[in-house]
Amino acid sequence: MKVRIKEWNAVSIWHWNVSEDEVCGICRVHFDGTCPSCKYPGDDCPIIIGKCNHSFHMHCLLKWLELETSRGLCPMCRQPFQTLGEDEVITT
Amino acid sequence: MTAVNRSIFDSVFSSSDLLFDDVEGYLPAVDTVAALEILKRWMAPKDQLYAPTDDVLRAAEYLRFFEDQLMAWYTDEFRLHFNKYAVPMLYVNERHADQQENARYIAQISNTLHDAHKHYFHPLTYLELSDDITDCFQRSFNALVCYSLPTPFFYRSLKDYFRCFPIISDYTTSIPICEGFYVAGLRDTVERALAETAVVEMEIHIKEQYTAEWALSVLEHFESWLTHHLTASLEALLGRKSQFRADLLAIGLGLLGNLRTNELFDIVVDYPDSTPALDDIKRCLRTPTERAKVVNSFQIACVKRLLHPGANTVDIVVAYLNTIRAFMILDPRGVLLAKISRPIRRYLKEREDTVGVIVAGMLGTDDTDLKVLHEELSQHGNKYAQNSHGEVDDLKDLNWCPDPIDAPLDFKHVGRANDMIGSLLSLYENKDVFVREFVVIFANRLLESEDYNIDQAVIHLELLKLRFGEQELLNLDIMIRDIAESKRVNSSLHGKSMEINTSSSSRPSTLWGGFNAKILSRLFWPNFNDVPFLIPQIIKDQADKYSQGFEKLKQGRKLRWLNHIGSVKVELELEDRSLDFVVTPEQASVIELFQHQPRLSLLEVTNQLQAKSDLALRAIRFWVSKGVLKDHGTQEDVFIVLERAEEKTNVNGGVVESFSSAAIQSTEEASSEEMRVYWSYIVGMLTNLGSMPLDRIQSFLRMLVPQDNPYTRSQDELQLFLDLMVEEEQLEVSGDGYRLKK
What we know:
Chain A: It is found in: Nucleus. In chain A, 10% of the residues lie in helices and 23% in strands. Chain A is mainly beta. The termini of chain A are far apart. Chain B is mainly α. Among the domains of chain B are: 3-149, no CATH class; 249-351; 527-662, Cullin, Chain C, Domain 2 (Ribosomal Protein S5, domain 2, 2-Layer Sandwich); 667-740, Orthogonal Bundle (Arc Repressor Mutant, subunit A).
């Protein structure tokens, strides 16, 4: 017998490249979900990963950084918040 | 009067014709005594009727002197005479079983009384008696008749008689008989018998003519029948115009209402063809008692014929919808509906598949009677959606009126009678149950569609949004968007799209064209049961390539494959035939194993797939049922490829698995799974308070769970969850409550 697979329709789920159970440090919503001001997850509501290894929904963090009291610090570790460059890899 | 009758009476009263013989020996009336004697002699009842002689007429001129005396004597005389001759004619020994004899008996009484009246009143016509005296005599006569007649017996016989000679069809024979009774002062009795008979005949007419005639209004026909047949005959029999038509109509409406009330369930089932009948009932219902009876009998019919395990849920929902519309015709205020719909609603709520049926109806998925829901959804859309929460009285409503007086306590205004969907949705406290069901159905449909076609789903979603609101259906929105997005990603990964990725070297150009994927946002889809097994290596390579491509395309994101979901098109080339199938991934993976080894045991399949044995076995069974694999026969759990089709293989015998077999959790499972969020609250309260009954846990959760994500589960869902916890040995049942297992 010869089995010829003509078409394979697979299903997958996507997730952000962070540990699956982690939630946004600001809105406490799952990264794979949306920040409170967004409707659609994924492209519309990206996440941002800092050099300090803390991740947030981008919108959540931007809102925080707009506040004067934030002084540009990461809300978790109070270090100046800098985004991780494209090629850098998070070390956990 | 007939000849027969005359012969009976000849012996008593002889002919009724007047004879003008001179009675011998009359003295000239010289004084009052003599005159009295002359009159007495002339008046004394005889077998014949005599015209007065001149002497008598002369004697009558003295009448005023001895009027009282004469009449007292005459009254005694006629009584004696009546008792002697007439009374025996009025009695019979027993009730006549035979209709003919009974009729003869009635006629005999009528004739006797008629003749008696004629004879006894004959002399009085020649005398100028005062009115008082005449009345007095008349009363004596009537009293005597009444006293002499065996009344209850006579009354029964009279009714029997009318049953034999119906008022409507046979009234002409009865007219002279009735008249005989009338002159004897029996009008009341006869009228009563006639009235009772009329009602009986009306009942028969209604039953025979109108049973199960719902397509036309019968009221008009009934009224004209009443006027032209029953009333006309009755008037002829009674010999006068009367006011009874209104009474008869009232009774008739009651009878008709009764008939229709008993038929109501069938009428409702027959809706809308039976609308005229409903209008009729509406006119027949006048008193609260009748309305209560409608409610009662309909409820009993419902319990007996609808609300039992044998009835299909679709049928119950259809019947419920019909009930709503039918009762809104009967009683536009909605009081009756509120009363009768309660048991149906309670029952529907208990049924497990109600939500599914309603949802399927709304989406028009299967071709049931519930398609009306889909039509309503597409036609009316948001017509009713606005005030779907408006259960409190609207203070600005100028047309507001108080609840009807007979409304039950929790009566709600049913202003939206045609809002079928609304009334079904209101079965449950919140719309979440429906939304969850929608999510499952949409998930199944979207995953089943092979070409990323979302048009149909989008249309449905838009319609549903009008009804349920945008926010509630956000999940569906995202699911549809996921599929659309997947299409874009898929085509760009296959190099069909030009927009992204100009450097062709970075594109995984070796991606096989037959491999397509759907990429889902996991939080917004139903939970997927994890079913681990290995897919064929070549496909796995493709999937890995696909993942790499995706990671390039969408920075920072990764894919996780759900191997058990999806569909596969395979072609099997066997020695004598080639077969095409669309199968599930696990079925494809299993048959792929047999490509390399035509003979495998269940254990080998399980090991190679790294799957649970029941999954492997189910897939093997599928192929056995398709005639591709075959039980080895001698060795247990060993299967071989059937290279040459066997004539008599049990091709259709096996159990063919349905496609997406439980790939997606059922709503029930999912909701229990989601309930685990509240587990910590439950543990907390049970630790502090010991054992607690279900309803207290429910109300505590309502209170305790923070309001930004409020607790909206129903008590039933909570119970399911708690029972699950009992099964998992986390909880135990104690008395009427639950407590933590130590």
